[in-house]
TrEMBL record, chain A:
GO terms for biological process: methylation; ubiquinone biosynthetic process. Residues 40-90 are annotated as: Disordered. Pfam families: Methyltransf_23. This is Polyprenyldihydroxybenzoate methyltransferase. Residues 40-52, 67-78 have a biased composition (Low complexity). InterPro entries: SAM-dependent_MTases_sf (IPR029063), UbiG_MeTrfase (IPR010233). GO terms for molecular function: methyltransferase activity. The keyword Transferase applies. Keywords: Methyltransferase, S-adenosyl-L-methionine, Transferase, Ubiquinone biosynthesis.
From TrEMBL, chain B:
Signal peptide: none annotated. It comes from Discostella pseudostelligera. The lineage of its organism: Eukaryota, Sar, Stramenopiles, Ochrophyta, Bacillariophyta. This is FAD-binding domain-containing protein. Residues 312-403, 529-603 form the FAD-binding domain. Pfam families: FAD_binding_3. Gene3D superfamilies: FAD/NAD(P)-binding domain.
Amino acid sequence: MTKVLRAHHCHHLLQRGCGLIASPSSLSSSSSFCIRRRSPPSFTSTSGHSSSIRQAAAGTGNHAHDGSSGSTTNSDSTGHVKSSSNISPHEVDKFSSFASSWWNARSNPLVGMNPIRVKFITDTVEVFQMNAPPASLRLSNATTSSLFHLPLQNKRILDIACGGGLLTESLSRLGASLVVGIDASSRVVEVAEMHSFHENSRLVLQQQQQQQSIYSDGTSRNIRYIGGSTVEELAAQWLSKRGKDKITPTVSSSTNHQSADDDDREHELFDIITALEVIEHVPNPTSLLQAATSLLKPNGILFVSTINRTIKSYGLAIIAAEYILGKVPVGTHDWNQFRCPEEVERMVCDIGGSSGGSGGNGDCPRMKQIALSGMVIDPPFVNLNWSLDALDVDVNWIGAYQKQSSTS
Amino acid sequence: MARAMSVASIRLEVASRTSPHHHVHNISSNVAASSLLFGMSNRQQQSMTTNNVCRCYLSTAATATAATTTHHRSFSSPSIKQHQHYDIIIAGGGAVGSVLARLLLDDNFGSTGYIKNTGTTRRRRPLRLALVEARISPPTLKDLIAKNNSQTTQSSSSSSSPPDPRAYALSPTSLSYLGSNILQSLGQHNRVGKYDNMQIWEHDGPAQLHFVGEDLCKAIQDGRLVDLNALVGRSLDESCNGNGNSKTAKQRPWLGAVIEDAPLVSSLWDELRRDTRIDLVDNVQLTSIDTPSPQEVGNVIPPPPVQLSFTRRRSNKKNGKEGSDNVIQEDEETTCTITSNLLVAADGANSFVRRTVGNFPMTTHSYGRKAVTCTVQLEYGMKQTAYQRFLPHGPIALLPVRNGNVDEHGGEGGECSPKYANVVWSTTPTEANYLMSLSPSEFLSTLNHHLRQGPNINPSILPNNNNMIPFNIPLISTLAHEVDSLLRTANSAITMGTWTESPSRNYFRLPPKSIKVVSPIMGFDLGMSHVSEYTSPRVALVGDAAHTMHPMAGQGLNLGFDDVSSLAKLIKEAIDAGMDVGGTSLFLDRYNQERLMKGWGIVGGVHGLHELFECSSSSGSDLHGIMKDVSSGDGTSVRGLRNLIGYSRSLGMNVVNGLPMLRQTLAEVAAGATPPFVK
């Protein structure tokens, strides 16, 4: 109990401290440490050399896989989407080269991270979206009922930067009615499609043989992948076509057999959007978060995970993981792109359009942080055994931000 | 029952195992246009079209009728279909395999929510399990007890047949994996041999070591160890809060319990039979196992499921009711193939799965020792104490069985009901064979002679014969005597110290006298074995399939249960994460790492303990081989060294006994509690 209280207390300190250090407008160029104290901005030491690559990359808008970079849209609902090509080609090429080993747990640490990410998502959804099964279902024996209720039952989910589909497949197995996976690299999306296609065909075969569906886990029948596209583009299309016709993503190949397209328009938005380990890889994280927020239903939850910008994260995520232990390829991460939880909270807080509260520590009218946890390797580097630790957000962390219903 | 499976003749489908799965590795192909069968191996497609329904009848509760009637098998029992897919297939329905199934089906076991107040249980997709067992399914617990009672041909005083010497000493943590239902039903039928005292002492030294239930109080109060009394519906009384030495303590913490194999497995199967999520397939003979190659794991294309083929013999003849070894009439033999995301090998020390899948190198070591085991009837009850005495050639243990019905005063209720104990006597093969050749009365007198002796309070480390002192030089001789007397004084002082610290705890209890041998005297060879890998793609080893060890610490099945608990947690974690437990190497790699560390710790620790006690076996009837060979060269110095090691060990035992912290830690480790420094 005391631990929890302390965590809350710390958290408040964190929020205020961060607000003093960096304002969102200066985030893209700042390379200061995220400090946990209410400290003057003297800590904003410069180390600009490493951020130059990123900035150069950000300047060039042409992207090899990007088929529709010309569609610059100013969405009327958010008004903040400036460019639809929020892609760093260098980053995309980097991840494309990992594609073939994406599902290899021994070379891709994201596989080991996946269970705790899913745990954080399902637990948060359970608490904040009141996803309880109907009372009738709860009374009946869920093990024999064919209507057993899964943690993400009937959720529509968008997985931004789905990569090889690790999280996408997991979410689809946990009951989601639709999971859309989108990634700037079309090559990794091909991997994702390939993987979930095989999972799916096996499952269909098994179901045909068993002639029963009560034990099916719904693998990948409800997945749709979009490769070589950005969430900004998706948002532009999604929102412009609301009220007109169905969605036709740029590069869409669906492996679904259900007709997910006949949902009404309200359901075209998403209950859950995940943007995990991506904002450190795009030139303009705010744009990404804005686009994601615009696709979220009221009370929908946006999950963001990244790496904190601390001395510890430099030591562990860059020096140790890339250079000493070789757990991730050298050059995977740029420390200056890391974000501390307070910065991201401020970013999503300001998205709502009501920028009045940006100066103080007031409420965020549109998006509110509802959960935050660190993700730690325990024990360090012996095996990649990740666990959630609410008190240690120094390196990897994941946060949940809920879109407030329009009344508030 | 695992052993029975391995005896079965093996018919390997070598061709199907060695031929790699034919996959099309074409990532950039137009996936949507491909056929649905794309990626399925040719073998799978063929078998799918040919033999679609396999009449492999399941074992149901209906098959286990009362033992007095013939063993009918219901032909209307449900059957599993050819190529039925399961999440997990467990090979071997013994104690370890059944407990794994139980834990997997227990919704309260496994990963908890990150946010604590999300509810009692996590919502998860129901697992689909299969348990394949070589033997015919065990009777229900009720039938087993009824059979025991009806078979009583012994003296009229006994209400049921004597306990089976095939029994396990289970730690509190292991017992908790059985769940309260099973523990309570076993308790109701008096099939639990609880002990909350343990006395360990030596043959020729002053050392004695007492563990009591109160040593575990701290772990229970810290939540590091499950409170078994709460699990069986009793409250932990003031023995943990107030004076731990209170003799009126009713429910002291358990140090463990001895449970016979047959009722344990029966009660586990009872629970499994009630669950629709698991298919129990008994009386099967595994023929082939097809697992993905290591190269297929971690690819873009997920590894294909493991495929298990078996034949199932069915007979409507009586099954060994008359014990007349009649060959089971093979009325029909069906072959069946089922697939699964993970195959768990729980089929015993001679695991068919381990040998068939291959790639499981083992470290083995034979101790050149044999264990003799039997059940004896006692003159009076054991007062919930387990005894172990270290003799020159190995330990002899007297363990309480069926000491339930404990009355309010700590005694064992029902004066007329007989008191039983399990004897496990490890010794040299020669002596073991000698013991087994003895008549029951001779065996009993030998047993009582060796067991009913207190520790030697003040032995000398020096040989009796002064001529045997190495380098028989006056000065060294004098020095040796000085050291000897010093050590003796120290040891006596520590012994005295522990007595004064807690006299009621540390007084030597004389084990009860054995008055009758009530079971056959059985012997088995002792060895140690441990695999160097616990996993292979989509295969995990648990229990004796992965490790065997010297029985002196009673850790064999406890380590097996620990394997099972660790694996069950990882499987639940995979399900909760929406992942395929064998689809990536993630979960099995973690299982492998966890088990290698723990397994080598326990197996190696027990091995070291054995070596330590071996070393100290003193002069006299020197039967064991190694020492004899060595001592034939330079007998005197070796013997002196051996005595010294024995002496320091004896001193160590006394020190452990005298230091409550150390003693508690040891007791907690043995009980399976989480160490305090682990989060």
